Amino acid sequence: MIQNLLENLYEKYKNNNDGNVATYIPELANADIKDFGIAIVTSNGKVFEVGDSRKEFTIQSISKPFTYGEALKTFGEAKISSYVGVQPTDEAFNSIELEPITNRPFNPMINAGAISITGLLFEKYGDETMDIILSIYSKAAGRALSINNEVYKSEWKSGHRNRAISYLLVNFNMMTEQVEKVLDLYFKQCSISLNSVDLATIGATLANIGTNPITNEEVFDVSQVRHILSIMFGCGMYNNSGHWAHEVGLPAKSGVSGGILAAVNRQLGIATYSPPLDFFGNSVRGIKVYEDLSKELGLHVFDSMNEGSNFLRAIIEA
Ligand code: GLU
């Protein structure tokens, strides 16, 4: 049933050519607008996929929830909350703006928050930070991932807006002065290459309460999973997160290369890849697929058809 559904969705949307690929990172402008992959991995490790589901792309902002999760584990909630909030923002992901009064970035899903978090990890782990980050993403995906050097170099060369954000953070003591070291890490983490099946496996690891259902390796603890899914739910789809929560109703994160990751608590990891983006920076075909999947399978967190709700009801009624 799931495989048929994915094939139908692929056919239904493969000729939708709305949207534009991101060009502000020059290397991303070379993306093939026809690329379109969908993958689902269940919380007990079954894989369903269609289209260009093995085509590699860079993770970009989909990295942000996981680096945030690592920072929470390393430093605890109290410290992290003085460096970054959990509030959705109406501003774009790359806005050069901090919260009034606290001077924190609004949340760790926008560049300012992610850079601040990366800075904290750098202060603690120094040059080992990248290996730590890469190893977490790799364990969650179930295979050794690596960095796309062309995209990394392109981001490094063109990332002056992120430099501006960083110096604003330094100004408010929200980040170490070693701006270039931190940005190097940030650009590298955004340039980690994976495919839709990898991404759906990462989602299934979240859905399976932190244990990769294919390798059985424990990657995140229960409290990290709760925080990661919460921040994805509130802030994961750029400044269209409220609309997404209403229509699709799943914790999700998108990135400017065209990937969208979502998790259905206790059930599924889902990933789509298609480079053309809408005004907010979300993949146009990806959004369509998720809207349909959510309705067809009753995945919305507040849908009465949702299996998770049934699961809870069974416990309550027992
Ligand atoms: N590396 C990208 C940037 O810093 C990530 C943006 C995104 O995917 O939202 O601009």
Question: What helical percentage do the residues reach?
Answer: 40-55%
**How does the overall form come out from the CA principal axes?**
globular
- Percentage beta strand: 5-15%
N/C terminus separation? 30 Å
- Distinct small molecules: glutamic acid
How many DSSP helices?
A: 12
Major β-sheet annotation: 5 strands, antiparallel
**Radius of gyration from the alpha-carbon trace, in angstroms:** 18 Å
- Low-pLDDT sequence parts: none
Structural class: alpha+beta
Give the integer mean of the pLDDT values: 95
| Order of adjacent strands in the largest pleated sheet | 2-1-8-7-6
**Secondary-structure element pattern, one letter each:** HEEEHHHEHHHEHHHEEEHH
What's the number of extended β-strand segments? 8
Structural overview:
There is one protein chain. With 318 residues, this protein is α+β, with helices and mostly antiparallel strands. It has helices spanning 2-13, 64-83, 111-125, 129-141, 149-158, 160-171, 179-190, 196-207, 222-235, 241-247, 284-297, 307-317, and strands at 37-42, 47-51, 57-58, 146-147, 192-194, 252-254, 259-264, 268-273. It contains twelve helices and eight strands. The strands form two sheets. A five-stranded antiparallel beta sheet has the order 2-1-8-7-6. It has a three-stranded antiparallel beta sheet with strand order 3-5-4.
Please specify the SSE layout and strand pairing.
Elements: H1 2-13, E1 37-42, E2 47-51, E3 57-58, H2 64-83, H3 111-125, H4 129-141, E4 146-147, H5 149-158, H6 160-171, H7 179-190, E5 192-194, H8 196-207, H9 222-235, H10 241-247, E6 252-254, E7 259-264, E8 268-273, H11 284-297, H12 307-317
Antiparallel strand pairs: 1-2, 1-8, 3-5, 4-5, 6-7, 7-8
Bound molecules: glutamic acid.
The site of glutamic acid has 11 residues, from loops.
